[in-house]
Specification:
The protein is of the alpha+beta class. It has ten helices and 15 strands. A six-stranded antiparallel sheet has the order 8-9-10-12-11-13. The chain has a three-stranded antiparallel sheet with strand order 1-2-3, with no helix packed on it. Strands 4-5-6 form a three-stranded antiparallel sheet. It is globular and about 75 Å long.
Length: 421
């Protein structure tokens, strides 16, 4: 077996040929090349973050080149880089060791740059300043609420079964309470064009979009709105450049549908039409790197996607969460290469096409009477979530009437911290 020193000496001798693959949402690169004229694969993978307080403080202090991607209400998201804290500090990511001659050359170049007037410093796309590669994608929630803290904390997941009776007696009122707390402000800001207007990839026709009377939250507001209207924009968890981790969000204009529980057979034409238009829009915008769309919503040239940087209809997945994070109907659109984390887990994500087929196959009742509110749904709930503490926990302990609560065993783990709903 080779010694550590001889094994380490192999890496500098690697000669890059081409990028073979990019996966894990762009966090792992597989390079094809040679070492001493023999074929070799070199795999770059992001190292795990440190967990001790001292290292975390150093990591935060090392953030640089912070660039805001967008902001809405209490949410903001950024790209950032990590600068070495000192010559003796090890970065969480790969650092290239330079010899003394290279370091001296860099120091001389830096001194020359300092002596130049500001107006003479190049800021063209070819300059190093504009080619900084971000190490991190940052999401900020400020000010955050106790609900946010619970959501992003590690917790045991409980598998629960929600019957139609339980939905009507406890879950629907729970949804109403959450909607009444103003937690949908950021959604309405987007729908009304107040925030993130420059990020919208597609907005369906809506004659009342600028009509103040159409911004109500009750039935009158829904009647004034184009019920077929929707808009499509990047999800806050996507870096807006890595096609293999593409993640978009479709928000519907209508406000009478809170979750997939409200869907019935009368909604099938609407769902099919919206599904087709979503896929067409995504392929049109991201299927060709040489498009004329806004630079904030088109991929970087040379970006690696699941199909050589090209998005096609059969490289997309559309799904709906239940329970969702917020009670306004929305659809997630992701690349098939995006690794299925908690956001696509069984008991969380319902594929849109499967959902349409499920509703279509339902029997009994009239067209407007049969739907998702009439079947049992089994899904996972975090022990720290309000849904568990207010409904399913008390049901399991016999403190709340309304049907059976938890069942199917306990699955330990986190509840998808950082995953959108």
């Amino acid at each position: 077996m080779e010694s550590a020193a001889s094994a380490e000496a192999l890496i500098p001798r690697f000669k890059f040929d081409k990028l073979l693959n990019q996966d894990q949402g762009g966090k792992r690169l597989t390079l094809l090349g040679t070492i001493d004229n023999l074929p070799a694969l070199l795999i770059f993978e992001r190292a795990a973050f440190p967990s001790d307080s001292s290292s975390i403080k150093n990591l935060h202090s090392a953030l640089s080149n912070i660039s805001n991607l967008g902001a809405n209400d209490i949410y903001a998201w950024y790209l950032a880089s990590i600068r070495p804290l000192s010559d003796s500090t090890t970065s969480p990511y790969l650092q290239i060791t330079k010899n003394e001659e290279e370091e001296e050359e860099e120091e001389e170049e830096e001194e020359e740059e300092k002596e130049k007037p500001l107006s003479s410093i190049s800021t063209s796309p070819s300059s190093p300043q504009s080619q900084i590669i971000p190490d991190l994608k940052l999401n900020l929630i400020y000010p955050c609420t106790p609900t946010h803290i619970r959501k992003y904390s590690p917790q045991t997941i409980r598998t629960v079964t929600e019957s139609p009776a339980l939905y009507h007696s406890h879950i629907k009122p729970y949804m109403q309470r959450k909607r009444s707390l103003g937690r949908l402000t950021w959604v309405y800001n987007i729908l009304d064009g107040i925030t993130e207007a420059e990020d919208v990839i597609l907005r369906s026709s809506n004659a009342h979009a600028n009509d103040p009377s159409a911004s109500g939250k009750g039935k009158q507001g829904d009647q004034d709105r184009d019920i077929a209207g929707f808009l499509l924009l990047p999800d806050m968890n996507w870096d807006r450049s890595t096609l293999s981790s593409l993640h978009l969000l479709c928000l519907v204009e209508r406000r009478d549908i809170w979750s997939l529980r409200d869907l019935n057979k009368s909604h099938l034409p609407w769902l099919r039409d919206m599904s087709g238009r979503i896929v067409d829009a995504v392929v049109r915008v991201y299927g060709n790197n040489n498009n004329d769309n806004n630079s904030d919503t088109k991929p970087r040239e040379g970006g690696v996607g699941g199909g050589g940087g090209i998005i096609e209809a059969d490289t997309l997945k559309l799904y709906i969460h239940y329970q969702p994070t917020y009670y306004h109907f929305h659809i997630h659109v992701v690349h098939t290469a995006l690794e299925a984390g908690a956001t696509q887990a069984v008991g969380k994500a319902f594929g849109l096409e499967n959902l349409i087929a499920m509703i279509e196959g339902m029997k009994g009742g009239g067209e407007n009477e049969v739907g998702m509110a009439d079947i049992e749904l089994t899904y996972g709930v975090g022990e720290a979530s309000e849904l568990w503490t207010e409904v399913f926990g008390p049901l399991k302990e016999g403190k709340l009437e309304g049907g059976s609560g938890a069942g199917g065993g306990v699955d330990g783990g986190a509840d998808g911290a950082g995953e959108g709903g």
